[in-house]
Amino acid sequence: MALRIGVLADDFTGATDIAGFLVSAGMTTVQFTSPEGLPEQLDDRVDAAVISMKTRSIAPGDAVAQSLQALNALRAHGAEQIIFKYCSTFDSTGEGNIGPVTDALLDAMGETFTVLAPALPVNGRTVYQGHLFVHDQPLDESGMRDHPVTPMTDSSLVRLIQAQAQGSAVVIPYATVQAGPEAVQQALQDARSSGARYAVPDTLDMRHLETLGAALTDMPLITGGSGIGYGLARAVTQTRAVTQTRAVTQTRETGQDAGASRSADADWTFTSGPAVVLSGSSSQMTNAQVRDYRGRAAALPLEISSVLADAEGYCTEVVSWVMEQQSADTPAPLVYATASPEEVRAAQREHGAQELSAAIEKFFARLARALREHGTRRFIVAGGETSGAVTQGLGVRGFEVGPQIAPGVPWTRTLPGEHPQPAGEETLDLALKSGNFGEEDFFAAAQQLVSQQPSTQEGRA
Ligand SMILES: Nc1ncnc2c1ncn2[C@@H]1O[C@H](COP(=O)(O)OP(=O)(O)OP(=O)(O)O)[C@@H](O)[C@H]1O
Ligand SMILES: O=C(O)[C@@H](O)C(=O)CO
After folding, report:
1. pTM for this predicted structure
2. Does 252 share its domain with 281?
3. Which atom of ligand 1 is the closest one to the Cα of 359?
4. What is the ipTM of this complex?
């Protein structure tokens, strides 16, 4: 059977974010960490496949090439609709990559029109008059203006996309979205006829996402955040509620087949064993979360100079420190590069922004791999790029998606037997947190959820 929805996500936390929302809307969803990871045959019961990439801030040409590869893999499985998932805060540079990738996908699919729908109201991301807000602030006045890699200095989605893509954009205003799916479809039709290439729908609450989902069930390419994924999935599953219930039940019974995700939490089992928190995000919320967690657990700030001077030797030191702190009775230790905007700017001036980001990400990947080799089985990671580096460092091919810790952040479990372990078939549990997601106590909340449910497998011998 063909996939109903195929998603290509430009970072790893974004991918688990949308996978979690597709699952919560009733879709049986599989997630893979590369196009090659997709097996030739997917189980018939799978509705949606998500491919996580790390294309948000690489060179536009590379992002386009990798995205087209992911598109081909999803289309080879007959995906009826494609979602290009990017950040709910439209993270991109002046050159892209949202514009170039959207244009390349449109061209490859023989299409000339799509929507840009980053809104995720449950997490405070709304769009009004085509401007993106983060809670009560326009995007360019929010913490995103200080992002280390993709600082956002404009809130107008129309201007942002027109600066990095080939066509013009129009806003579908609030009143139209409020009026329902037919009104939206008419407005899309009008926008297309006027020669626009992108439509930016105002979106103030989760009901608007359901309206948009219902209006977009025939659009071959949709771009945006996990919210529009949720809206679309709801529109699809609501029309086949009975069949879907049966499919999800079967997936639970068969468990690991084809990496099918589970859609409910009651029978989710966590992998037991030592845990660690790795934070490479310097977002406002992650800064608050790190502050909160430092009061609860052992915490080690990374010495950037040691990361740059002797990553291998320093990694060995950090591994020893983590292992000394890990015990069944205490919260997982935290290792963090998280810093204030002023500290980040100063470090970037000294070492170069890209070099520094790459070195820190590489360090986290190395650290995660070494910790896994020494028995760590549960990783809580903050930051999309950081999560990409860690997941790739761990050699993970795909995930099952489990209970949500916070909107957009589910616990996930690696597919078994994918990352050779001394003891064979152990899985790893990963919580990949987008920079600005979760409440201040997120790191503790993630572990609290684990302690409330059953665990399997002992990690360290
Ligand atoms: N102290 C620091 N100084 C400079 N750069 C840093 C520092 N700490 C982390 N970084 C880099 O900043 C980038 C943060 O990006 P990341 O995607 O991990 O977090 P985020 O952008 O907050 O999360 P998300 O993309 O999920 O919103 C990474 O490349 C990381 O290596
Ligand atoms: O959409 C979001 O905000 C997140 O899934 C994300 O992509 C952050 O990296």
Report:
1. 0.86
2. no
3. 31
4. 0.97
